[in-house]
Amino acid sequence: MTTESPDRTEPHGIESHGIEPHDVGRSDAAPHPAVAATTPTDFGIDYAPALESTSILSIDEEYGLFIDGAFVEPLDGGSFSTVSPATAEPIATISEGSAADVDRAVAAARRAYTKVWGPMAGRDRAKYLYRIARQLQERAREFAVLETLDGGKPIKESRDVDVPLAAAHFFYYAGWADKLEYAFPGRSAAPRGVVGQIIPWNFPLLMAAWKLAPALATGNTVVLKPAETTPLTALLLARLLQDVDLPEGVVNIVTGAGATGAALVEHGDVDKLAFTGSTGVGKQIQTSAEARRVPLTLELGGKAAHIVFDDAAADQAVEGVINGIYFNQGHVCCAGSRLLVQESIAGDFVERLKRRLATVRVGDPLDKNTDLGAINSAEQLARIENLVDAGVAEGAELYQPSCPLPERGYWFRPTIFTNVQQSHRIARDEIFGPVLSVLTFRTPEEAVAKANNTPYGLSAGVWTEKGSKILWMADRLDAGVVWANTYNQFDPASPFGGYKESGFGREGGLHGLTPYVTLTSRRGS
Amino acid sequence: MGERLGVQKTYKLFIGGGFERSESGRTFAVMGRDGRLAANAAKASRKDLRDAVRAARAAQPGWADRTAYNRGQILYRVAEVLDGRRSQFTDELRRSGTNGRAASREVDHTIDLWLWYAGWCDKFHHIAGTVNPVAGPYFNFTIPEPTGVVGIVGPGKRGLSAMVARLAPALVAGNAAVVLAAESASLAAVSLGEVLATSDIPSGVVNILTGDRYELFPSMVGHRDVDAVDVTGAPEDLDPAVFAEAASNVKRIVRGDGTDQSPYSIFDFCEMKTVWHPVGR
To answer: How many whole angstroms separate alpha carbon A362 and alpha carbon A154?
Structure first.
């Protein structure tokens, strides 16, 4: 990215939804005052704007709650706005579900479980899930554009990652629905009943798919609570569920904030809870659920170590590290936020990262060239800024490229901290933003010790060309997912979930079925 | 000659491979069915629990690093040694209140449990793990790993065999354990420590505390260096505050499913690790 990038001022067609066009005029606001260096390389290359049209969207001014197959008004009439983080403009008015609304939704899910979905043959559940997968594929662009508008992530990510993976999850678990007798040797699997699921704002549709697909495949019905800053794709999914004639009440979507989620967690007629979000909230949910013996799975925060050895393929490792931390603005629980680079190559490797950072394009998420989109909310931006300030105050050395940022909306430059100590907050706290902390190590043993020196344990990355070292490291890293010579790969067939305070339970693959079934002994086994 | 006068045993705690009295100096009386004193047993304190957790943490990585074959042989050895001491264990169960035939049945079942679980050490990965057909050029597999340090509350009913039904699967997976033995099985639990100590189980991998397990339970649940707690033997009416303590480090709360021979009990004490690597030239 050069500092002379042309203004990208073309509006992109969301006026039809009653929203002002994005103000994409770019400011040259200075990077963080503590920036230690300016962009080291100017390739003199730039891209013409390539805005994805929003004409495919049809967004309502107001959305109700999706309960028992229909959109209904919230009982106490509460509402809030969902905002496009790229402009800070409201997009639509969303219903705020109360405890009474949650109660209605759970009752609808209970009826659907007892009368329709529980008794239904697995073969037929499979067909519904296949329908959902196919419709998601057919309407993929619409979902991708809406996801990007509502959440601020680059269109190339929502288009190439979030939506295809969401469809793939439904397709994968569809095939399990009529094969559960082969999934658990010596045991019969029965659904748990009504499942309460709470999902985060970083991958709104994809997390809905991760949660819904295995729950529905195994015969459960669901009350889903999307994140308050990103409800729109879940509500579009509700429309899709109507279109595929999913029986009423099998999936209920109650929008709202923390109080709505708490009402779902504490509801007495929920048979299983699943939560993806912060470790702090996860601990509260665990306290509540365990005391009432409600089965629970948690997918919480992370502070992943991304380990680069001196014998790694350097250019590939640079790409992996950049992808590992800047994918989805770093709003990724498994983001490779702690780079552990072997001391002998640290200087050169950090220079390579800085050179690569110069080509990371920050800006309008709807531009197909954009690499780093908008920060999801003002609240999250403030949290990132707070932690970055703490990093500077504690003595780490900050680097940001001097790329221009749009004037409106929520933005943060891709950031690299060097001279980071393990005791620094930026090495311990989950920042959930585009901020990489660089530490060094000398031996594999030291790399393992530093990597595991965190209460989290969701993921880790290892780069080396030596196969035995990869397996040695993979064996010792306390992480539920280890990416070796790659990073941030996801697949419906691959289990995902944490060690330690990153949570428990797995999503994806055969293991992703377990949380949603009760196992009983088969006669004669 | 008159009948030989027996040598009475002092029942101690089993911590870090050694047998120690409680640091608190406390004991409690184990009474027989006839209402007479069977023995005094050590009443473990919170400090004893702390020492046991420390010993377990130190021992766990070495146990997990043993080959599955070796762990299987060691657990098989436990069954061997226990089989040779059947009459002692039967006698200890009888002296602490279990009737005659039930006691011998329970000891036999306990031996068979060790044997059954020993064989899982190098097999449960086959059914717990997977190779995952991801949609891309990657080799991707998922394997079970031990959770780490596991706290186990021994169930009160058939206290010896029920305790082993939770302890053995935790050991199969490569965990180290701190066990709060049920009061009814205190004597046999301590003697089990003697069996483990002479069966090549490394010191600290199993630690057995006797005493008031409900008194110690909150401390175990609140201990930040315990990774999972098996509450199969915990009281039904637990103070909900206990679970806030458990959540302080997102402790895994494990409950048995009522069967005492199940590979799924091994999975309860496992974490699943998934590894990706590209396929290429």
So the answer is: 9
